[in-house]
Amino acid sequence: MIAVYPGSFDPITLGHLDIIQRASGLYDRLIVAVARNSSKTPLFTAQKRVAQIRQAVQHLPNVEADTFEGLTVSYAKEKEAAVLIRGLRAISDFEMELQMAHTNKTLSNHVETVFLATSNEYSFLSSSVVREIAKLGGPLDHLVPAHITHDLHQRFDHNSMAAKDK
């Protein structure tokens, strides 16, 4: 069975990786699908985010990274996926995610949404929190993989901060 874990992953966090690790044990193949949205200005290009994800999941042989644009259920159908994976951090996530799951069900009866609760240690974590901390030069090692920390420091030109974090 194939599952798709869609999102912006700008950048991928340890919380995302927690969901990926756990979902990879539930499905034969897991596609981490980076959404390309022309109305948003991401920190990293879609290609860079795919490369970041590939590096972070290289130890998981049944996980791959890809990009898509448009409806998530259309992408899932194209990839012959039966499941969409969504992570839940807090009750506030549930309301929006449930609405999205119901909407997706109206678009395709053949794709189910499976919710995975984020592990407690990552329940506060989001890409926007990471971007804000990175912009302000704060420590990132407990939030993202080391290669993402490096990319964020380069993006915000915090070479002096990177040296301090080591």
From TrEMBL:
> Pathway listed for it?
Cofactor biosynthesis; coenzyme A biosynthesis; CoA from (R)-pantothenate: step 4/5
Q: Which Pfam family, giving just one, matches this sequence? A: CTP_transf_like
Picking any one GO biological process from the record gives: coenzyme A biosynthetic process
Keywords attached to this entry: ATP-binding, Coenzyme A biosynthesis, Cytoplasm, Magnesium, Nucleotide-binding, Nucleotidyltransferase, Transferase
* SUPFAM superfamilies reported for this sequence: Nucleotidylyl transferase (SSF52374)
Q: Which InterPro entries match?
A: Cyt_trans-like, PPAT, Rossmann-like_a/b/a_fold
The protein's required cofactor(s) are namely: Mg(2+)
Keyword Calcium listed? The answer is no
Could you say which residues bind ATP here? S8, F9, H16, G87, L88, R89, E97, Y122, S123, F124, L125, S126, S127, S128
Q: Which HAMAP family match?
A: PPAT_bact
Protein name per its UniProtKB record: Phosphopantetheine adenylyltransferase
Which organism is this entry from? Romeriopsis navalis LEGE 11480
